[in-house]
Amino acid sequence: WGLLLLAVALGATAATRCPAPCVCDNLRAHVLCLNGSLTAIPDTIPELTRKLDLRGNSFMVIPAGAFLATRYLTHLDLQRCKVERLEEGAFRGLGRLVYLNLASNGIALLYQESLDGLFSLQQLILEGNRIEEIQPGAFGHLRSLTVLDLRANALVYLPDMVFQGLQVLRWLRLSHNALHVLGSEAFAALPALRRLSLDHNELQALPGEALARLDGATRLDLGHNPITYVAEEALAMASLSHLFLDHASLQDVAPDAFARSPQLRILDLRENQLQGLPPLAGAGGLVRVSLDGNPLLCSCLLRPFHKWMTRARVHAEGACTAPPALRGRSLNSLKSPEMRCSRLWPPPSPTAPPEQPSSASSRQCPWGCFCSPDFHHGSCENRDLREIPRDFPEDTRLLDLRRNPFRTVPPDAFPGLKELVSLHLQRCSIRVLHPGALRGLASLVYLYLTDNHLSTLVAAAFEGAPQLAYLDLDHNAFTHVPAGTFRLLPNLISLHLQHNAIGELVEGDLAGARGLRWLYLAGNAIRHIAPAALAPTKMLEKLQLEGNLLSEVPTAALRGLPTLSELKLSRNPIKHMGDSVFLPVASSLQHLYLDNMGLEWISPHAFTGLGPKIRSLYLESNKMSNIPDMSNFTGLEILNLHDVPFHCDCQLLPLSRWINKLNLCIGATCGSPPEVQGLKVKLSTTFQTCPGWGQSEAAETSPNKTKAAIKPNKKKRLAKSPARGFSKSRA
């Protein structure tokens, strides 16, 4: 009781410090600052706050010591805050924090000290960022963490010991990335891990060596990976009970593939290309094998598996595809004599696994540099070097050469580094990347050339680096996309060309970039995108064009992008938006950013084709005089209408009703009349005097009601028919 009274007393004192536009519940020690226009962490948050919710603001950077004034925080929510960088020591002082949510931001890289000070943290949510690389040691201070969520990022590679320090982690979520390279010791420091989610990645083989370090893991999800074959004794996980390999590309499984996982009970092999299975030797604990969705050929060659599953009392789910006489029959209903060899079924020959690289050389580290044999890292950061040093150990996988005035990268600059995966050349005053500069870097996945002086590139510069997947050219001097540069990069997934001086995209600029998924072009001077400029990138998922000079939506250029799910057009001077501007990508688009554009008019039919797939729509800080009907946007999770001056009279009643049905916090406020200025549209009392206010929901949504457009406050009356929208009251 004493503590409660003290908290109430201090809370009453702190109440006067509640920052606008936040809401402070001092009794529960909660502060909410949702979907506002905050660009910095408020410094007047009550000191005793336990839960701080800052969702939907615009912080961009979390600076060092940002929360030193709120040391009692236990829960911090920073979802959808446009955060791109966590400075070292950003969360220092939050020793009581147990929950941190940083989902749906723009974080690209985690440094070693980014999460320093969070020694009580139990859950860390980083889902939906664009994290491409994690430096080992980034999680080293999180000794209490039990759940780490890294879903839906841009990870391709996990280095050795990347999760070092997570001694009590129980669930690691890495789904929906682009992982295809795992260090053999990537999971070596996770003694308490029980569940690992690696589904929806690009793994082409079962990463047995990396997984063998997980002695205590009981559940492993590898579904939706292009794995074609499970080799002999491929999986050695002593405690594994549930294995999911569904929706992969499996064509064959070795008889003793799971012999070293004796506790395996559930094996999910649904939706693969298996025509059958051999008896699974050593898997004596199996209870169920799911084979639904496979083209099972129930010939005599399936008899050994059928006899084994009957003898071992394994329940097998699946049905025959052939021969015709047995089509549709479940495996459990078959009798051995029925499985005849009327058709031959030659099982595919398993491809032999690639040879492991030979043991690394122990050559000396270059003078003035630091080489870590445990992490396979080399670093010469900020050593004022004029030439790229040589003689790094041959097993080096990450090489950090930032902040050295190299000026050029000569041919064969990195000899002997065939295992190098990540190369950092940021802020090196580089003007020229010579042909053959990367020759011999056969394993290179990440190349960072940010903050240099590059204005052109030639394709030959990338000769010998065919695995390159991430190319970062932000903050250089490009005035156009270096056409033809990407022809030698068949595995390029992510291309960063932000904050250059590119004026347009023309046909041929992206030739050869067939596998590109993420294209970042923010902060350029792009005025025009040719209709065929994006044609080679048919797998594109994210297109970020914010902060350019586009005056209209590049509708023609969006044709032929069947998988585009995110489009950012924020901060472009697009004043008018016509009919069906997003129709070419309507079947795939999920996230649409149209904020801070000065929009003055949106056609009632601008969103034609869009519907339930749309999950987030950002329209804040605009001046539009209409909002198209979005009643079929039934999948909306985020709608931001902050800083749109709605006139809250009876003509806005349909919008108010729709907002209330959404049950979302969207930030829509009244700009007029004066008595409700600044009040949330949801809370405005002006609608209570409107005709039909008390009618039932059925009457409120009657087809006779006009839904084409809903108009906020404007000084000028628009020449639009009442049948096309709701006209503004002039009372």
Radius of gyration: 29 Å
Total DSSP E strands: 47
Provide the structure class. Answer: mainly beta
Instruction: Please state how the strands of the largest beta sheet are arranged side by side.
Output: 1-2-3-5-7-9-11-13-15-16-18-20-21-23
CATH architecture of one domain: Alpha-Beta Horseshoe
CATH top level of one domain is Alpha Beta
CATH superfamily of one domain: Ribonuclease Inhibitor
Shape descriptor reads globular
What proportion of the residues form beta strands (DSSP E)? 15-25%
Low-confidence stretches: 1-16, 342-362, 696-731
Q: Residue-averaged pLDDT, rounded?
A: 85
Quaternary status: single chain
Stated plainly, the CATH topology of one domain is called: Leucine-rich repeat, LRR (right-handed beta-alpha superhelix)
Largest sheet: number of strands, sense, barrel closure: 14 strands, mixed
Helix percentage: under 10%
Amino-to-carboxy terminus distance = 55 Å
Treating each run of at least 4 consecutive H or I residues as one helix, how many helices? 5
